[in-house]
Amino acid sequence: MADQYAQSGEDNRPTEIPAIRWDEPPEGPVLVLLDQTRLPAEEVELVCTDAPALVEAIRTLAVRGAPLLGIAGAYGVALAAARGFDVDEAAQALSGARPTAVNLAVGVRRARAAYRGALAGGGDPERAAAAALQAARALHREDAEASARMAEHGLALLDELLPGGGHRVLTHCNTGALVSGGEGTAFAVALAAHRAGRLRRLWVDETRPLLQGARLTAYEAARNGMAYTLLTDSAAGSLFAAGEVDAVLIGADRIAADGSVANKVGSYPLAVLARYHHVPFIVVAPVTTVDPETPDGASIEVEQRAGHEVTEVTAPQVPVAGAEAGGGIPVAPLGTQAYNPAFDVTPPELVTAIVTEEGAVSPVTASALAELCARSRQVTIS
Question: Is 205 considered catalytic here?
Fold first, then answer.
């Protein structure tokens, strides 16, 4: 079950409402999400009391972004355990809620492993639930720490590639605090440049058809006082041609073993533009986004979303003239078929560097990624 209640947020300070949090009111533990479908019109929290409600929140993009989906998946397992539901059933439903983002399944597996380990060690269900929650909280904390390190490594790389500061950075989709336990991935790098006085302009792709750039990245940029400009996705080429883009910064939902990057659809065309115009194309993502079990880009399952997201303009969740809350306004003839992949895949040869919390990989090769992942496991174990 899910419930909603609004929170105010009418000033220009960074939001104090976290993207995700665990709460324990008298009626029982809940997972509370900042409902991203309501932004920027309203800051509203969505309260999930069971795994099915969280699955629905994931599928409708109330909660989204690879790192945050991993955290949500882990908390979802903990929620099922704490409320006495079938943990394996919840884990299976959560893992399949969105197929491309590998972090979701990683987070689910981590919390379920903690739960099973506690039971195998002689713990009762209550202790096992506590172990799952501890695992989720640890993942949440680690992601925040990873975000800070990615920002540091990413800014250092930008300064190396673009000496002199005054960076004009183009980004796609949304990669800030709304997708992370910290300040994000690619957006966190741009924010670090802004705070260091080295960001001249953040170019924000609107990111069709769901407008995560227009609704969410612009929202985060405004609240952080960054110099930003919103553009239609199809206008990016003219910016490159005019010499107005110094670097492209994007996130990732899955990185294959060979370095192929799945990210929000529209990323691959930017990589092609960047290569033609000799502009660095940089991917920022935690090591957990690298999936050694996916050998190459062709092996990445790309989520196909409903056609109405393309054939209709979705009204905000608050009522507007001519449409019901959450409804759509048709923009194509009735019966029009739509092609609506959620992601596209950029081959490694078009990626200048992949920046993680463990450092940057450039050039992007399978061996370099494998070495990075091995180093990350050693750090985690130690």
Answer: no
